[in-house]
């Protein structure tokens, strides 16, 4: 992996980075590069398999992105995230530690709480929250 100084260089070579062609505030193209077709194919299969698993970080990331941007862009985002993780594992000589499907909830619990309360309010429920009593 010494050929690629950063994970972004590897992702760009593999063709998983979105384009950022912008001129005068207008976005021209966000297509990915062609990259290495063999690596791109293997990453695509791995990303689709990871998106279908349950209880993993990649499946949670896929669901979040696919709901906003669509399934194809979500697969490319998973490919990119997997390649970044692979680069970090190979350069640090470490095993992969999955953050889990509740990574986004644990990172910002207040946001998850407010989202759940807002969803209930939109369904017509009055919601009041009380902290659980401490048990000891």
In words, what does this structure look like?
This protein is mainly alpha-helical and 136 residues long. The protein has a domain at 7-101. 57% of the residues lie in helices and 5% in strands. It has helices spanning 7-14, 37-52, 57-69, 71-92, 103-107, 109-122; strands spanning 21-23, 26-29. The chain has a two-stranded antiparallel ribbon with strand order 1-2. A hairpin with a 2-residue loop joins strand 1 and strand 2 (26-29). The longest helix is centred in the middle third of the chain and has 22 residues, at 71-92. It is globular. It starts with 6 loop residues before the first helix and ends in a 14-residue tail after the last helix. The model has no long low-confidence stretch (mean pLDDT 87).
Produce the secondary structure layout.
Blueprint: H1 7-14, E1 21-23, E2 26-29, H2 37-52, H3 57-69, H4 71-92, H5 103-107, H6 109-122
Antiparallel strand pairs: 1-2
Helix pairs in contact: 1-4, 2-3, 2-4, 3-4
In short:
With 136 residues, this protein is mainly alpha-helical.
Properties at a glance:
136 residues; 6 helices; globular; 5% strand; 2 strands; two-stranded antiparallel sheet; mainly alpha
Structural class: mainly alpha
SSE order, one letter for each helix or strand:
HEEHHHHH
Overall outline: globular
Low-pLDDT runs: none
User: What is the β-strand count?
Assistant: 2
The residue fraction in helices comes out at: 55-70%
N-end to C-end Cα span: 50 Å
Please outline the major beta sheet: 2 strands, antiparallel
Fraction of residues in β-strands: 5-15%
Mean pLDDT, to the nearest integer, reads: 87
Number of helices: 6
Task: Give the strand order of the largest sheet, numbering strands 1, 2, ... along the chain.
Answer: 1-2
Backbone CA Rg: 19 Å
């Amino acid at each position: 992996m010494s050929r690629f100084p950063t994970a972004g260089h590897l992702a760009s070579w593999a063709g998983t980075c979105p384009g950022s062609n912008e001129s005068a505030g207008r976005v021209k193209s966000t297509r990915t590069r062609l990259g290495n077709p063999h690596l791109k194919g293997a990453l695509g299969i791995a990303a689709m398999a990871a998106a279908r698993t349950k209880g993993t970080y990649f499946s949670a990331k896929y669901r979040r992105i696919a709901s906003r941007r669509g399934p194809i862009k979500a697969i490319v985002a998973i490919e990119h995230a997997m390649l970044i993780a692979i680069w970090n594992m190979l350069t640090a000589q470490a095993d992969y530690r999955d953050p889990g499907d509740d990574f986004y909830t644990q990172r910002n619990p207040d946001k998850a709480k407010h989202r759940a309360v807002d969803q209930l309010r939109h369904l017509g429920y009055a919601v009041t929250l009380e902290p659980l009593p401490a048990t000891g």
